[in-house]
Amino acid sequence: MSQRQNKPEILHTEIVARSRLFQIEQVHLKFSNGVERQYERMKGGSRGAVMIVPIHQGKMLLAREYAAGTDNYELGFPKGLIDPGETAIEAANRELQEEIGFGSNKLTLLKELSLAPGYFSSKMQIFLAEDLYESRLEGDEPEPIDVVPWALADWEALLDDVDFSESRSVSALFLAQKYLYPNNLKMQDSAGV
């Protein structure tokens, strides 16, 4: 894959709005062809985030928790920010213990995803967690999270569940399937062409 050689020149940046959680930055760019544009983006930090697909006794362990953005209880995989001084693997193991009451002896990085690269610089690392053991840490959630076991073999039905709609969780599901069953997601040409 080739990359463009000449990224736009950043002429000026300015914070145009801020809240307790977010800062919106206006970026004035000049492209290699001379065209200038202003974009807005969420000013990101460098902490990053993790999402974990935990596998225990042939089942994925999902978390059902309230999401203020959709005003709904969403079904997805455990996730959270990487704390200062923490590695991504340490954050993944901590989040598992805080959200679903399990730690993992085997965490495998599946992929690092960008969330919305046109607006955010944030990245999320997706892990597969195996060899789980019971362990609970106190998290910052306002109410207990419901843990929903889902048969690994029934992963396609999970895609049909109306509460399983977060794109990062859907991506994590496919990444886990690709890792666990690499030949199942490949298209087979039955005609031999």
Task: Please describe what this structure looks like.
There is one protein chain. This protein is an alpha+beta fold and 193 residues long. 17% of the residues lie in helices and 42% in strands. The protein is built from three helices and ten strands. Strands 4, 5, 6, 7, 8, 9 and 10 form a seven-stranded mixed sheet that branches. β5 and β6 form a beta hairpin. The longest helix has 14 residues, at 167-180. The chain starts with 8 loop residues before the first strand and ends in a 13-residue tail after the last helix. Mean pLDDT is 88; it is low at 187-193.
Characteristics of this structure?
alpha+beta; 193 residues; single chain; 3-stranded antiparallel β-sheet; 17% helix; disordered C terminus
Topology:
Layout: E1 9-18, E2 23-30, E3 36-42, E4 49-56, E5 59-67, E6 72-76, E7 79-81, H1 88-99, E8 102-114, E9 123-134, E10 146-151, H2 155-160, H3 167-180
Distance between the termini: 27 Å
Q: Can you write the helix and strand succession as a string?
A: EEEEEEEHEEEHH
Question: Given the helix and strand composition, which structural class is it?
Answer: alpha+beta
Give the number of helices. 3
Principal-axis shape: globular
How many beta strands in the DSSP annotation? 10
Organism: Shewanella oncorhynchi
GO molecular function, one term: hydrolase activity
Protein name: ADP compounds hydrolase NudE
Keywords: Hydrolase
